[in-house]
Amino acid sequence: MDTLTxxxxxxxxYRVHVGTRLLERVGEIVRPLVAGAHAAIVTDSNVGPLYAxxxxxxxxxxxxKTTTFVFAAGESNKTLATxxxxxxxxxxNHLDRGDVVIALGGGxxxxxxxxAAATYxxxxxxxxxxxxxxxxxxxxxGGKCAVDLPQGKNLVGAFWQPKxxxxxxxxxxxxxxxxxxxxxxxxxxxxxIADANLLDILxxxxxxxxxxxxxxxxxxxxxxxxxxxxxxxxxxxxxxxxVRKLLNFGHSIGHAIEARSHFALGHGTSVAMGMxxxxxxxxxxxxxxxxxxxxxxxxxxVCEAHGLKTSCPYEAKELVASALHxxxxxxxAIDLVLPLGVASCTIQTVELDQFFELMRIGLSEEExx
Length: 369
Hints:
The protein is of the alpha/beta class. The chain has helices at 26-30, 48-61, 80-92, 107-119, 133-139, 177-194, 196-204, 209-214, 216-234, 251-260, 267-285, 290-305, 320-323, 352-363, and strands at residues 4-8, 14-19, 38-44, 65-71, 100-105, 125-130, 144-149, 152-159, 164-168, 329-330, 333-341, 344-351. It contains 14 helices and 12 strands. The chain has a 7-stranded mixed beta sheet with strand order 1-2-9-6-5-3-4, with helices on both faces. A 3-stranded antiparallel beta sheet has the order 10-11-12. Strands 7-8 form a two-stranded antiparallel sheet. The chain starts with a strand and ends in a 6-residue tail after the last helix.
């Protein structure tokens, strides 16, 4: 299968590579981008045993001295303590400003390795090698990296663009059905906010473990299209001061659900619940609610076809405390992404009381009239 590429022309431009058997080419791709001799792989206890040896060999063949840091997998370990351990590993192995960090894994790994690279020696190069669908289509692209605090998700971080993103879709075959479905939440979000044709494709060809083996080129094309959608937004607003907030469709409610579950519910699952809820809530205040009610049903149906639950197990009042820690909150108001239709959304600043009422309506199981 041919490798697909997407160029991201931001302040520090880079290329995203999407295809198969790319782990074996990591060293070949990285070598022209980095002057130093040392590459530090950061990975987790799930991904490391599967893929770190392949990447280590690839980097060694390209002339890099390699070290590997492995941390315990899971969002619960996306903390300042783990971040400090990564920094200590980089310092103990004497990485300098010419060297590179390789983020090998899902979104948690990419966020922490990226933040470590952004702050170690005031910034060294890093490369994203995402192995989950969620990381391939979302967190590896755009330069946002962060760790969590007990008070909320991604509250400490930076904008730090990678030197490259290398997405080997062959890695998706080792995901569980739940992990694969979780990535589909962001895929569906991109379709709803930006690409009606992509939404049609997802309805006709849901992404499942079976479809991976049946049509991997289609999956690669879907991943590349998602990268293009995110790229098109990020190049307009690299530091999320305006239009980039469109990428947060479903996230204000979704992040609150995710935090309330203590991350037992995955990010994509939580976003799926958030997308349906905010669409239902927007219908409740629209002059013509019927198209948005239909859109909420459509989003729910395509999410469910991808294995995502859309019925929230919590009442709105249980989510208020978590929602207060949303990064998009500004004083007593919050920026919300409200849908107008497929590939049409608007960003509105609403008072927190109004947001909580919208959340209550959106999460209600009652049919809107």
